[in-house]
Amino acid sequence: MNIQQLEYIIAVDNYRHFSKAAEASFVTQPTLSMMIQKLEEELGVKIFDRSQLPVHPTEIGKRIIDQARVAVAQVNQIKEVVQEEKGIIKGVFRLGIIPTISPYLLPRLMQVHSENKYDIRIVISELTTDQILQGLSTDSLDGGILATPLKEPAIREHPIYYERFYAYVSPLEKALFVKTSLDESDLTAARLWLLDEVHCFRTQILHLCNLRKRRNGNQQSIFSYEAGSIDTLINIVDKNDGLTVIPEMALSNLSETQMKNVRPFKNSTPVREVSLITRKEFYRERLLNIILEEVKTAVPGSLQDEALKKYVVPL
Q1: Looking at domain 163-271, what is its CATH homologous superfamily?
Q2: What does the pLDDT read at residue 222?
Q3: 88-162+274-311 and 163-271: same fold?
Q4: What pTM value is reported for the model?
């Protein structure tokens, strides 16, 4: 078994076609096929089911390929670590960001990164938390920015900022709108608009509601529609009754009129912790520190108060 063979099975998995994988690997198809066949013979298993078009890995093949991605990534990191030791910090950092953070963080982050002029290319994908974790495990991502703590043993978490939650209330909710601040119980007193189930932000809001629901014994439905983005929720509340919950960084996108609909929570400070996560085996510390510093520069200093950590709402 050698690294080249592992690179070939990864290529076939990526392209699901031996000829295209060979072309991308700059070898002939017979050479690539022979090397993969030798690996299968050495391991005593079939990695690919060649009877299917496009080609698919077998069940054991999927596990082998996942491990191959990790092994190849670690070998590449050895080269990159040596470069960093020589003072050469360059390359690509593949970053996943969840949708409830990206609209507010990315514009400023890209500006900061452009101004710094590092020889680093950040490739960004907007993904769910589960997709980011999958990307890290298969080495299709180097890092992710999302809500934590995740308590994943294979992941390193680097907390960046702590973001308060605010209620966004329709003027049609007259009993709530006249209040200068809301209690958690107010979230179940009117129609609550939420994100759909793939978003961890939704889970945190449900935790806010459920804590109060259990105390009150109120089992009624607390939402009537699931939206795909926070901006959609805001637009829904603008044109209907009810309320929603938005993160602090979303406030910067609101108009003067919309800011009149924002209410803080009283008797509590619900917060989400946002971190940059990597695999525990990610050793390019200097590159990672550059990315971390750029993200922190892109975030208002008021959100980087570690004292808010004790108010983090569970995921």
Answers
A1: Periplasmic binding protein-like II (3.40.190.10)
A2: 52
A3: yes
A4: 0.76
The length of the chain in residues reads 315
Domain boundaries, the chain: 3-82, 88-162+274-311, 163-271
Give domain 3-82's CATH number out of 2.40.50.100, 1.10.10.10, 3.40.50.20, 1.10.10.60. Answer: 1.10.10.10
For residues 224-241, give the mean pLDDT.
Answer: 82
Q: Which two structure tokens, joined as six digits, stand for 17?
A: 């076609």
Looking at domain 88-162+274-311, its CATH superfamily turns out to be Periplasmic binding protein-like II (3.40.190.10)
Burial 161-184 (b: 16+ CB within 10 A, else e): bbbbbbbbbbeebeebeeeeebeb
- Asked whether the beta carbons of 49 and 19 are under 8 A apart, the reply is no
In this predicted structure, what is the pLDDT of residue 197?
A: 67
Mean pLDDT, range 35-47, rounded to an integer: 95
Residue 184's pLDDT band, with cuts at 50, 70 and 90, is confident
pLDDT confidence of residue 314: 84
